[in-house]
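Input structure tokens:
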């Protein structure tokens, strides 16, 4: 239940606070005073889309805050499933909309996403706007209404999960079958690829080592000559670098005898001698390996040509050629394993089809059982709402298939005037009749759902007189045991309220500004008289007092 709603800088609203309570709360006021803006504020609080145009001119942001009382353990459990924890049995929800269109939200002081607000709204408020009666024309809405009455939520979830599982298996089966057929078409080519690459006996990195060997063989004579010269430079007797280092070592020994400090250089000379000796050894060994070998060079070039052709056909690198071979082998293995896998998938599909059919049958049974009961329950209310010949029938038409929503289409058929045949709502109901039919449905559903607050924005459109009185009685009945907030122009409905709020609008500092106040006693008589046509007329005031007295007397 919404205990309090505070709205600041939202359209024409500067700063208003609504104190609401259980039972029937009504909001009245002149057309254009800003009543529907308060419903929009509730919508924003519970996840509706926001835009910068909702911010009051001259303000930096619009702010909506609400205090929601969590009254029942069932509602508390629903909130806990959403990860929302009431504090001392209450939730404080806040939403800000900036003039730049950006929106922020909090629940009990902690930042919240707009999705969280929407999920919260789904369990605490059923908001019926001015144009939502048209949703009755939607087959999806009609199906949802029947399932809500039937208590088929769990059955729908079970069917949805079974159908989703079945579709996954079907998709997996179709994909595997298509892959198998594709491999069958390409099997000869794949076998050729695997055989061709296998015959080459490739080794990772082989192409790089062959390139290096080919360069050495092609330049063997030049490399031999250069390595010989390098060896001589290092080891030539009397003139090589190693002989010169020997001479340097002897000179250093003489210096060291006179100045021992020079001995520190010996380590450097010894290191240089050791490194150059190792270099000389490696040069000798390298030179020994160099010889011209035209036969080996021809063999290497043939191997390089083979690798080049394989890389041209199967990948720019040798690693990719090998990967292509592995991929081809895996695809060929599919031919051996696919039949067994497809038999397994077929068995799983049959089992899933059975589970899906059972879930659909369970949902159909609930719908069949509930359809006639819902039709009768709604039909009983229609005469009291100004539709004396009205009757609602719910038709279930087999689809010939099972989808995620069931195996039948749900259609609401209405006979809203005596002597006429039942026809689809889209062909039988006017706007006012749809509003009354929606109210009847909401009244019936209210006895079965756990949503603590219902909001109706001008559901009385297109009705008046005695029907208005009957609509007021119906709303009062719906409000027993829950909170109902109604925006209305009908005095017959306003007179039934347990809490009456009036919205007024006037210019303030050159800007239209809406205000709200709770009225009692004479103020309430004045407002109901205004709704009857003249707030100052004695006849209207007597009529208003009579309406209010009758409403109190009927409680």
């Amino acid at each position: 239940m919404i205990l309090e709603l505070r709205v600041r800088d939202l359209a024409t609203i500067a700063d208003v606070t609504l104190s609401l309570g259980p039972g029937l709360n009504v909001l009245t006021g002149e057309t254009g005073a800003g009543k529907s803006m308060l419903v929009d504020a509730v919508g924003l609080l519970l996840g509706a889309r926001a835009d910068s145009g909702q911010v009051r001119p001259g303000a930096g942001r619009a702010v909506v805050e609400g205090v929601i009382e969590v009254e029942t353990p069932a509602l508390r459990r629903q909130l806990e499933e959403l990860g929302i924890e009431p504090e001392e049995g209450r939730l404080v929800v806040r939403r800000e909309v900036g003039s730049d269109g950006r929106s922020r939200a909090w629940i009990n002081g902690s930042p919240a996403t707009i999705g969280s607000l929407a999920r919260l709204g789904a369990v605490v408020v059923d908001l019926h706007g001015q144009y939502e009666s048209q949703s009755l024309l939607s087959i999806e809405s009609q199906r949802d209404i029947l399932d809500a009455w039937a208590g088929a939520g769990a059955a729908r979830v079970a069917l949805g999960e079974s159908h989703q599982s079945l579709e996954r298996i079907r998709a997996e089966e179709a994909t595997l079958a298509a892959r198998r057929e594709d491999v069958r078409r390409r099997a000869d080519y794949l076998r050729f690829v695997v055989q061709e690459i296998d015959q080459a006996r490739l080794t990772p990195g082989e192409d790089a080592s062959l390139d290096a060997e080919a360069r050495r063989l092609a330049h063997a004579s030049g490399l031999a000559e250069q390595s010989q010269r390098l060896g001589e430079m290092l080891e030539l007797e009397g003139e090589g670098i190693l002989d010169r280092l020997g001479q340097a070592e002897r000179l250093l020994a003489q210096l060291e005898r006179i100045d021992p400090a020079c001995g520190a250089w010996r380590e450097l000379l010894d290191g240089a001698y050791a490194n150059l000796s190792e270099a000389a050894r490696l040069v000798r060994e390298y030179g020994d390996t160099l010889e011209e070998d035209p036969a080996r060079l021809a063999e290497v070039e043939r191997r390089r040509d083979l690798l080049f052709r394989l890389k041209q056909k199967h990948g720019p690198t040798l690693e990719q050629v090998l990967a292509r071979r592995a991929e081809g082998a895996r695809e060929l293995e599919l031919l051996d394993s696919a039949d067994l896998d497809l038999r397994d998938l077929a068995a799983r599909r049959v089992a899933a089809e059975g589970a899906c059919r059972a879930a659909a049958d369970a949902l159909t049974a609930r719908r069949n059982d509930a359809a006639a009961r819902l039709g009768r329950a709604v039909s009983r209310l229609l005469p009291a709402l100004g539709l004396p010949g009205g009757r609602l029938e719910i038709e279930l038409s087999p689809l010939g298939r099972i989808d995620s929503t069931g195996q039948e289409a749900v259609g609401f058929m209405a006979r809203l005037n005596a002597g006429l045949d039942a026809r689809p709502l889209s062909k039988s109901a006017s706007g006012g009749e749809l509003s009354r039919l929606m109210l009847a449905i909401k009244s019936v559903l209210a006895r079965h759902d756990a949503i603590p607050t219902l909001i109706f924005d001008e559901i009385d459109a297109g009705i008046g007189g005695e029907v208005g009185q009957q609509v007021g009685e119906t709303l009062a009945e719906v409000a027993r045991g829950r909170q109902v907030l109604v925006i209305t122009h009908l005095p017959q409905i306003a007179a039934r309220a347990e809490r009456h709020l009036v919205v007024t609008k006037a210019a303030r500092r050159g800007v239209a500004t809406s205000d709200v106040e709770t009225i009692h006693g004479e103020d309430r008589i004045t407002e109901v008289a205004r709704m009857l046509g003249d707030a100052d007329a004695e006849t209207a005031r007597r009529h208003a007092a009579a309406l209010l007295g009758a409403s109190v007397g009927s409680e």
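Residues 1-130+449-519 form a domain with the Rossmann fold fold (CATH 3.40.50.300). The longest strand covers residues 391-403.
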